[in-house]
Design goal:
By secondary structure, the chain is of the alpha/beta class. The chain has 10 helices and 13 strands. The strands form 4 sheets. A 7-stranded parallel beta sheet has the order 3-2-1-4-5-6-11, with helices on both faces. It has a two-stranded parallel sheet with strand order 7-10. The chain starts with a strand and ends with a helix.
């Protein structure tokens, strides 16, 4: 297959590109390196077509040679990271929405299959757990906080995909649940696992927001990208043979863990690997932080034949080793 991966130099994107190359796909990467990093793809430059361009601009897609030969578009270009949601809400919405609309337009024009990488944040503050596929999204009043700049943009992205499906696009939606692993941003604009680890290594402290009771389903990066690739490569549901167009799939682990327990595990792992004495430090969290997030996985298991196989302990050890 020939695949276009937007955001292909990012954390998830670069790992997906590697996986597609292992499957012998021909891969075009479109990334402006705002969040993605050149070093994420420098070891595979000879095997990909890299376009350093903005996925939000229609003109960027005009640079793709032989666009009619693209079989599938994997759209991962987006701005993630909780700190960005609160500090640059309009930028988050601008990038996430416009990149999605432009990528859909390209897929429609050239009759490509389209895989949209959404997020469980698209459900907003839904309290129905585990999160499935038909639950309503719940968003607080816009004056309360800006966290939903991201979640609502992903919700609207899903809406745009479903609208395009009704007009003939073969579109699928995947929702990775807190993917983590090497290459995940470690700075204050990153995500929880590597932020905790970087703080432990640099300051002997692991910061836990609030009382630490909020839970997440943390999913190893290789498991996530296998699910994303399956959603783009399969023609139909493995169990029923029905079309996958318009379907959405949660990609997550069944291991639910509180942030306090996660912090304690990371303290233990860092202490084992170093001479440090790392401790927990409780800090104020961001407004709008979800109390619980656990995926319903039946659709991914029955339709894609997918499930997460890497334990949290194993994944955390691999991640930490990549940072030492």
């Amino acid at each position: 297959m020939r695949a276009l991966v937007t955001g292909g130099a990012g954390f998830l994107g670069s790992s997906l590109v590697e996986h597609l190359l292992n499957l012998k796909d021909d891969v075009v990467v479109l990334d402006n390196f705002w969040r993605g990093q050149p070093e994420n793809v420098e070891h595979i430059l000879e095997n990909i077509t890299l376009l350093e361009l903005d996925a939000c601009k229609a003109s960027s897609y005009d640079s793709i040679q032989d666009p009619s030969s693209i079989d599938v578009v994997y759209h991962l270009a987006a701005i993630n990271g909780t700190k960005w949601f609160h500090e640059e809400a309009r930028m988050v919405m601008d990038v996430n929405l416009n990149s999605t609309l432009r990528a859909i337009e390209f897929a429609e024009k050239y009759s490509c299959r389209f895989v949209f990488t959404s997020s469980p944040e698209a459900f907003g503050n839904s309290e129905e757990m585990p999160l499935g596929n038909l639950e309503s999204s719940v968003f607080t009043h816009p004056s309360h906080h800006q966290r939903h700049a991201y979640g609502a943009s992903k919700y609207l992205g899903e809406l745009a995909v479903q609208h395009a499906v009704r007009q003939g696009l073969d579109g699928r939606i995947v929702r990775p649940f807190n993917g983590y692993g090497p290459r995940l941003s470690q700075d204050e604009y990153g995500q929880v696992v590597t932020m905790m680890m970087r703080s432990a290594l640099d300051s002997n402290r692991v910061h836990v927001h609030g009382d630490g009771s909020q839970t997440r389903s943390l999913t190893w990066v290789d498991d996530v990208v296998q699910g994303i690739a399956l959603s783009g490569r399969l023609d139909s549901c493995l169990k029923t043979g029905e079309s996958l167009s318009g379907r959405s799939f949660n990609l997550g682990s069944t291991e639910e863990i509180s942030m306090l327990d996660l912090g304690n595990i990371i303290c233990r792992l860092v202490n084992e690997k170093t001479s440090f004495s790392v401790h927990i430090e409780m800090t104020e969290g961001y407004p709008g932080d979800s109390l619980r997030r656990l995926p319903h996985l039946v659709d991914a298991e029955t339709s894609l034949g997918w499930s997460a196989t890497t334990s949290l302990e194993e994944g955390l050890r691999h991640t930490l080793e990549s940072m030492l």
